[in-house]
Amino acid sequence: MKSILTQRISFRDLINSKIFRGLVYLFLAAVFLLLLCDKVIMPLYTKHGHEVILPDVVGMNFDEAKKLLEKQGFKVIKDKEIYSSQDSAGTVLFQNPVANSTVKRGRRVYLTVSLGEKNVQVPKLVGGSVRDAEFKLRQVGLNLGEVRYEFSSYYPKGVVAEQSVLGGDSLRLGSKVDIVVSLGELPSHFVVPNLIGKSLDEAKKALSKAGLRLGKVEYEVQNDLLPDTVIRQSIPAGKEVSMGRVVNIVVSKVEVESQEDLSGSEKD
Fold first, then answer.
1. Exposed, middle or buried, 162 (CB in 10 Å: 0-12/13-18/19+)?
2. What tens digit of pLDDT does each residue of 68-95 get?
3. Is residue 268 in a domain?
């Protein structure tokens, strides 16, 4: 009985044993290492606990925005470059993540930067028709501007003889290009076009195209016609005249009743 009891180790002896104390120290060391890893090592690795507000760099120059973001510990990447008619080249248009969002320091910030206004190459219009000129301009994003007509001994009638911007030059997208269209060789005489029934603007263009000039414009009340419709012309249509001859016209206008007439009609 005593031999059995002597072989047993009391609880107090167990606590005081070196093996037990070693196990306790080992456990405490493990707990310490876990806390160290969780509170120190992992935050350093993941930057956890170092979240900051991402500044707004939209509208800034790219170099300035990059300098500001890198100073705060971010990695800047130029994501895209696009044309913008409202922002000069090098201006930051968009940022991802968006401004004022909470992000970790060291995060990548993607910036979209403006290339400025898009310029296009002007096509060659000289030698072609007006229709071809308009088509070519539209193809590259330009518009046909003023069309003038002049006589030319070199270019046939109806062919573009001049353009305000030479082919191959650059223009801002959406700009206009004026052209001069040949009327052919200068004739010895000019035929007066029929202006009756045309609008005032149409009459001006018809006279210019015929090598003639619009002279005096008089107005006559014609309530059954649209305003500015040509009623009469000083030189009959089809008559041959010299270059630059002036043609006077009479155009319609609508009679406007006065306040007195209106009040009188109401009394009746």
1. middle
2. 999 988 999 998 899 887 888 999 999 9
3. no
